[in-house]
């Protein structure tokens, strides 16, 4: 997770950036993240783990109903470079299957856990119909960063940036999000879903 990564694709409009949330869905954070984003008129992309999606199908459907983009973050969140190609394919394809069953359409974006990837992993994802997507800004919310620091980092994000956040029950992220969205709105910025191709 600590790697800095470039994001592809990036938000299309000059007045937008992309808030993205990894590792969910999670009952202790997903509903509140949806509520905060919806109330502020923002949308985000959620990179979901297949095992979590299977465990909480109602949260996947809630994200979909709220207009959030749903993307693939592997089945069990392993570091993919340490796996065999067949195991990487299983992680990706199993997640594609459950997300397609829950939303009625397959995901088109993929983020490797920890940002750990390789040309071969990129090819496997592409063969599954997925575009690999990393990030530009990481406030390290996965590492216990306090809400005020998350807000401080994200209020300096620029148009076109893709921001890495997490949806794994982290209360600091949930607490910070309304202030982040308010600050973005004041700056004339809106979080939009990443392009779905």
From TrEMBL:
Print the keywords alphabetically.
Hydrolase, Metal-binding
Q: Where is the signal peptide?
A: none
What is this protein identified as?
Polysaccharide deacetylase family protein
Q: Which residues form the NodB homology domain?
A: 15-192
Q: Which domain of life is it from?
A: Bacteria
Fetch the PROSITE patterns from UniProt. NODB
Which Pfam family is one of this chain's hits?
Answer: Polysacc_deac_1
**Where is the region Disordered?**
1-29
Q: Which InterPro entries match?
A: Glyco_hydro/deAcase_b/a-brl, NODB_dom, Polysacc_deacetylase_ArnD
């Amino acid at each position: 997770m600590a790697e800095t990564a470039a994001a592809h694709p990036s938000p299309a409009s000059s007045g937008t950036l992309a808030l993205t949330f990894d590792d969910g869905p999670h009952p202790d954070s997903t509903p509140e993240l949806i509520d905060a984003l919806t109330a502020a008129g923002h949308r985000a992309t959620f990179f979901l783990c297949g095992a979590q999606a299977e465990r909480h199908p109602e949260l996947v459907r809630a994200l979909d109903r709220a207009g959030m983009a749903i993307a693939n973050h592997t089945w069990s969140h392993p570091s993919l470079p340490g796996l065999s190609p067949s195991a990487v394919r299983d992680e990706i394809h199993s997640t594609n299957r459950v997300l397609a069953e829950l939303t009625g359409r397959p995901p088109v974006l993929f983020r490797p856990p920890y940002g750990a990837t390789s040309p071969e992993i990129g090819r496997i994802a592409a063969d599954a119909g997925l575009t690999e997507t990393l990030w530009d800004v990481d406030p390290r919310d996965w590492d216990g960063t306090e809400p005020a620091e998350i807000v401080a980092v994200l209020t300096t994000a620029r148009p076109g940036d893709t921001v890495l956040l997490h949806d794994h029950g982290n209360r600091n992220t949930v607490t910070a999000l309304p202030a982040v969205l308010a600050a973005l709105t004041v700056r004339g910025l809106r979080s939009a879903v990443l392009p779905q191709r």
